[in-house]
Amino acid sequence: MTVPPAELATVSGSTLATAQRRLQAVATTTTSKSNHRRLWRHLAVYRTHAQRQRCECRRQSQNQADPKFSGPISNVTVPVGRDALLTCIVHDLVSYKVAWLRVDTQTILSIQNHVITKNHRIAITHTEHRIWQLRIRDVHESDRGWYMCQINTDPMKSQMGYLDVVVPPDIVDYQTSQDVVRASGQNVTLTCSATGVPLPTITWRREENAPLWLPTEHGDEQVDEIYSLEAQNLTLWQLQRVHMGAYLCIASNGVPPTVSKRVMLVVNFAPTIWTRYDTIYVGLGQKLTLECISESQPASINFWIKDKELLQGGTYDSMVVDHVHRIVMRLTLRALTRRDFGEYKCIARNALGETERSIILHRKWGKEERRKTYI
């Protein structure tokens, strides 16, 4: 039995499933093996024809679609260690595919929903096949560069966006000055180095907003109006005691946090001494305590002298304030006699010099003593 032309027409105009059922129904009406083979040959021909029709319909739908980008990819700036998100918006994608690529390395990162790269920090998301987002977790400096969103049209359509990775400042310790000691009259240069993206700005300040005591352009005097200096190096000329203290190297580049390092400058100087009174009047038999205060760096040796003789005894209370050694020296005289009057010298000495201060002790005459003297 042969299949009537009307049946073949019906098969060619039906879907694949419907055509298969009809051919099977026709086959049940005949017992001839040759007719069975003929029927299944017709079914195979139809399958090939149906597949060609589907491919043609797909090509026609693609030809009718015209995917396009709704706007450029916005450039993104993100601090290192954070997550970055690049967004590509596509209209009328239909059956076309979207891919993300790293431009400088020509690396395919993703195609549609599938992540191609082995970088576990890369992820792809989309909303209704229209908004395609490339997410990079825990951004590294090496992620900085151009990224391409591509549609596989013919010719290919693409657009690019730039990922900029910024890095907070970090002071390079081995390239930055440590605590330093200089003698008065010497010069010193404090150096500070920092890394970061963008390159940090270095600013020098002093603790407690003290002035830097920088020389004028002519170098003939000191000025105290300068409280900060934007420079990598801070040079201090002809050091004096007023220069001693903590200096702050501050690095900032607009990416928080701002960082700083404290550098202590110690200026060695010869002792200085002062006392409340240079001349004292006191009566016989009275008790008196002489006092001098010295300051120096490094610490000094302190002692009392009278008539070129070293005096034993006395107290020496020492303390260190802001790297300055202060010594309060006291000498107590009990029940004054005539021999106790005269000039006393308090002396402080260190490696940079020696300083002394005199206190002259005069006898104070009472009324009775003055009357006896006149008689």
From TrEMBL:
It is found in: Cell membrane. SMART domains: IG, IGc2. Residues 67-152, 169-260, 271-360 form the Ig-like domain. InterPro entries: Ig-like_dom, Ig-like_dom_sf, Ig-like_fold, Ig_sub, Ig_sub2, Ig_V-set, Neural/epithelial_adhesion. GO terms for cellular component: neuron projection; plasma membrane. Keywords: Cell membrane, Disulfide bond, Glycoprotein, Immunoglobulin domain, Membrane, Repeat, Signal. It comes from the Eukaryota. The keyword Signal applies. Gene3D superfamilies: Immunoglobulins. Its main location: membrane. This is GH13004. The lineage of its organism: Eukaryota, Metazoa, Ecdysozoa, Arthropoda, Hexapoda. The gene is Dgri\GH13004.
